């Protein structure tokens, strides 16, 4: 255990350090200058401070207050050595953060007893802090393990969607990335951005329940077929319903809400404005933009600038204007992403 003694009188300093140094497993260092003592604790932790009350320039109270501003020394025990028995002085010292007092002239037995007791307290504090750090590390590892398992399940479910519709393989990855960019530009917290990035690929998970004849029809769908296709929203919602994790819950919001429109003209519920979950509003922009840029059997590939203009045109009707503005701010990153793909080459 490391103890520092701050006493401007060099004789008294030597006496105090000599007494403390004789305690087992204690390293003691003395300072006659309070400034030097403070500079020392900025570089090295200590387990106990013994400080004289009366010192020139910086007195003991000032030093204690300064020490207590350091997070590393907020709980370090401090003994004040003083010849002043004034009640106001002691109350001021307690208010500054002093743990215990010892009167001058110092009695060696008393000093050793008080130092030993406070060092035991400090040892218990250190052990408790270490245990808290160990538990926090264990929790973090367990959380990371659970997150990896959750991410793996989501990834494999997204892969299942790809097998049902071979045009969605790169689509889901791009939608996730564009949604992530929009969320970042909206200033959303890192946890929200991460969850959205993982959940967005499941926006069309309900297509698992759409017949192949409709899902892969080489042409436009008739009204009955379109009604069946639209049921993928309900199927996706049911697949992801009642999830316990934030990820599955957000994926459910996206699956059920990414075809809703800002003006209330979308489906399946005709939700309007902020009644549509933010995650679904963001994903809607990313999904439509990528869909426009993809070749489908019933439509040609749109150039990315034309698709960009369509997103702007639909602000306030199909899309949340705030999401479109975030899309605009993120456009340099989004356009770079699409220019790196075969979609840009085809355009």
Structure, described:
There is one protein chain. Helices cover 59% and strands 7% of the residues. The protein is α/β, with parallel strands linked by helices and 347 residues long. The protein has two domains: 2-134, Rossmann fold; 165-346, Orthogonal Bundle (Hypothetical protein af1432). Helix 6 packs across helix 11, helix 7 (190-199) crosses helix 10 and helix 10 (246-257) crosses helix 11. 35% of the residues are buried.
Task: Give keywords.
347 residues, alpha/beta, Rossmann fold, Hypothetical protein af1432, 2 domains, five-stranded parallel beta sheet, elongated, disordered C terminus
Q: Give the averaged pLDDT, no decimals.
A: 89
Largest sheet: 5 strands, parallel
Q: How large is the radius of gyration?
A: 33 Å
Give the CATH H-level superfamily of the largest domain. Hypothetical protein af1432
Give the SSE map.
Layout: E1 2-6, H1 10-21, E2 27-31, H2 34-43, E3 48-52, H3 60-67, E4 78-82, H4 87-96, E5 100-103, H5 108-164, H6 169-185, H7 190-199, H8 212-215, H9 223-239, H10 246-257, H11 278-293, H12 304-313, H13 321-329, H14 331-339, H15 342-346
Parallel strand pairs: 1-2, 1-3, 3-4, 4-5
Helix pairs in contact: 2-3, 6-7, 6-11, 6-13, 6-14, 7-10, 9-10, 10-11, 11-12
Q: What is the gist of this entry?
A:
The protein has 15 helices and five strands.
